[in-house]
Design a protein that fits this description.
Length: 687
């Protein structure tokens, strides 16, 4: 150990080193045929995070492959079951995903830093016996003493080496961790694990070293939460891997087949040096926490990120940090409960959270008895805590069971009347809001991405990210990561959340629906997208017209053309139209007469308006567009389903359905009074 390290960290390194070394791997070219010896030079390191899954850096699996696609590439994985190089196994792995996804489209030059988070998840293609690390549930690590590990080659000898350092701070909006210059990060250590010595958990992945000396950067393991979201009705890769991670450690903790030290055993020793202001009752024991993570992993994953955050907020007694990567699993919710403000400490908050999970509406039926087993664990664990807390937990459980049963009965009653139900409209849950403002008189824009809580919690806005001075051409790239984070927070198992774009009317032609945020699929194909006027507003007359449009039947009316010729609608003409009319505009929203018409229909109280981007051929007739809109509105019947029907149109066009080509560039202005916009504008940058 370097000079200056505390005796506590030296002891922690001694305890953790065998576990980490045994889980750390060498990444290299895939072995050829049956020959496992001809693996070639070391590309970098990685480590097992779950049975069959290796985490490393994207630039490690991209070594020597500038012209190949990373996802799907086969690589070699050499692992050391005993923690040393005397016993070595080599197996082929396949890269399942790299982060960020745009690395498949654009990669940096040789010796340049790869874009954050610079992660790759590799699936091992054969069953092997190995150990796995314990990953932190914290989205932001504490700045404390740490150790990093990786494969080094000194004097021609390959070995897994561990060095100590201190976490010095965060970078890249929390995606990266700065490592101190206590020791040198050698070539080949990229992709290796960074371990918090105080808490005995892996917090990062070694990314880069400084050219001028020691120290460097690591990627926060919380960035795994930014893995692409799955299609509705499927379990995402992140949740699958974390479930396998927790069940691995749960099984090891319960097993008595060998006496090898586990991560939970080491956590027990590390915890002895920490003070508890509640006399040992303020936090769970490591064994209790491992068991809880295993029980949570046996349940179906949560239906949405917001469901996790809401339970964590109820357990903490205050809103958790909203700047973190969205919590996607029940385990992630535990990471929001550290250092709660209320009395009772973390143990009380965790037990309240686990009680809420045990009575939650799971997106699919859990294994028989799984939620009861979780509640039995809560009740047993609470026996060593305070009597008032035990009584509170029992009341929460009984109330939660009653509310869940009521919701299920109501859902069953609605299903029984299914023949009389009309097609559903937008879900009442949260939506993602994108706002953009012109920056002074320049042709650049300030922007903000937020989460609107929805009609159930009107007025609640949670910021995600903001920026200044972005060009229109640069917006898709600048907004890719913030929008992806917003979608992770809002999407549910059943449906993708609504994207609301609040911009000035001249930007209603912005091709947001065609942007690719995740998976290479356009946003408008993945989810409903609508435009909003940024200045809010509304009136009783507008609200009344909105309610009638929602009920239908719908009528269409050309607002900026007559038989293909441009025109400007008068206020009197607009006010005299039927209340269920949807004005339709077919020309460029940024030019007259359409720009003025957009303002006029808004002033007349129309909350649902259809417009489109100019077609590629300016001389093309607008008749097919208007004919298609008329048929679509007639089939929709009522306004409530329009956002979803437009998404279906885009999906058909994306799937090469010629009957949907008329809808290219179609946009919906959707001024839902139940989804109020924030009134403040973001601060502009320096002029």
């Amino acid at each position: 150990m370097p000079d200056g390290r505390t005796a506590g960290s030296a002891r922690a390194f001694e305890l953790l080193e065998p576990l980490v070394r045994a889980a750390t791997v060498r990444v290299h070219a895939a072995p050829g045929g049956y020959d496992s010896a001809g693996t070639g030079p070391t590309w970098g390191s990685g480590f097992f995070i779950a049975p069959g899954w290796v985490l490393t850096c994207a630039h490690v699996v991209g070594e020597g492959g500038a012209g190949v696609r990373l996802a799907g590439r086969e690589v070699g994985i050499s692992f050391f079951p005993g923690g040393d190089t005397t016993t070595t196994g080599t197996v082929t792995g396949r890269v399942e995903c790299v982060l960020p996804e745009r690395l498949e489209e654009r990669r940096p030059g040789r010796r340049a830093l790869w874009d954050l988070p610079d992660l790759a998840l590799v699936r091992v293609l054969a069953p092997v016996t190995h150990t796995c690390v314990w990953l932190t549930d914290r989205a932001r690590p504490r700045l404390d003493e740490a150790a990093y590990f990786g494969c080094t080659e000194e004097l021609g000898i390959r070995e897994i080496t561990g060095r100590t350092t201190r976490l010095r701070g965060l970078a890249g909006n929390g995606a990266a961790i700065r490592l101190g210059d206590d020791d040198e990060i050698e070539a080949g250590m990229s992709g290796g694990p960074v371990v918090d010595l105080a808490r005995g958990e892996v917090v990062g992945v070694v990314k880069a070293r400084r050219h001028t000396g020691g120290g460097g950067l690591a990627v926060s393991v919380a960035q795994l939460r930014t893995l692409p979201m799955p299609a509705a009705g499927r379990t995402g890769l992140y949740r699958r891997v974390m479930q396998a991670h927790d069940l691995y450690h749960y099984d090891r903790h319960l097993s008595d087949l060998d006496n090898r030290r586990t991560w939970t055993d080491v956590h027990d020793v590390l915890l002895l040096g920490e003070a508890d202001p509640y006399g040992g009752r303020g936090r769970l024991t490591p064994g209790e926490r491992t068991t809880l993570c295993g029980l949570l992993a046996e349940l179906p994953p949560p239906g949405s990120s917001e469901a996790v955050r809401e339970l964590a907020e109820q357990a903490r007694g205050e809103e958790p940090d909203s700047t973190l990567p969205a919590p996607l699993s029940w385990r992630d919710g535990l990471g929001l409960l550290h250092d709660p403000p209320g009395a009772g400490g973390e143990a009380a908050a965790v037990l309240r959270y686990a009680t809420g999970v045990s009575v939650a509406d799971h997106r699919e039926p859990p294994a028989p008895g799984a939620d009861d087993e979780l509640w039995d664990w809560v009740r047993t664990t609470a026996e060593r805590l305070w009597r008032p807390l035990r009584r509170e937990l029992a009341e929460r459980h009984e109330r939660g069971l009653a509310e869940r049963e009521l919701r299920r009965r109501l859902a069953a009653g609605q299903a029984a009347l299914g023949r009389a139900r009309r097609p559903a409209g937008l879900p009442a849950g949260p939506s993602v809001l994108l706002e953009a403002w012109a920056h002074g008189w320049e042709d650049v824009y300030d922007w903000r991405v937020s989460v609107l809580a929805g009609p159930a919690r009107p007025g609640r806005v949670t910021p995600v990210a903001a920026g200044v001075r972005a060009s229109l051409a640069g917006l898709p790239d600048v907004l890719r990561a913030p929008l992806a984070e917003g979608f992770r927070r809002c999407d549910t198992h059943e449906a993708a959340a609504l994207l609301e774009v609040a911009v000035a009317p001249e930007l209603f032609g912005l091709a947001v629906d065609a942007w690719a945020v995740s998976g290479g699929v356009p946003v408008g194909v993945q989810r409903p997208v609508v435009f909003r006027h940024p200045d809010g507003g509304g009136s009783p007359a507008a609200d009344a017209r909105w309610a009638r449009v929602q009920a239908g039947p719908l009528l269409d009316q050309r607002a900026d053309c007559a038989r293909g010729r441009p025109r400007s609608p008068s206020p009197g003409w607009l006010e005299g139209l039927a209340d269920t009319t949807v004005p339709v505009l077919c020309r460029d929203p940024a030019a007259e007469p359409t720009l003025g018409a957009l303002h006029s229909v808004r002033d007349a109280g129309y909350g649902a308006v259809l417009c489109r981007r100019p077609p590629e051929d300016p001389g093309a007739s607008c008749a097919p567009f208007h004919r298609g809109v008329r048929e679509e509105l007639a089939e929709a019947g009522r306004g409530a389903v329009l956002p979803l029907r437009l998404q279906a149109l885009r999906r058909r066009a994306h799937g090469a359905d010629p009957d949907a080509y008329w809808a290219a560039g179609l946009a919906l202005v959707w001024e839902d009074p139940a989804r109020a916009l924030p009134e403040d504008e973001p601060l502009q940058g320096d002029l």
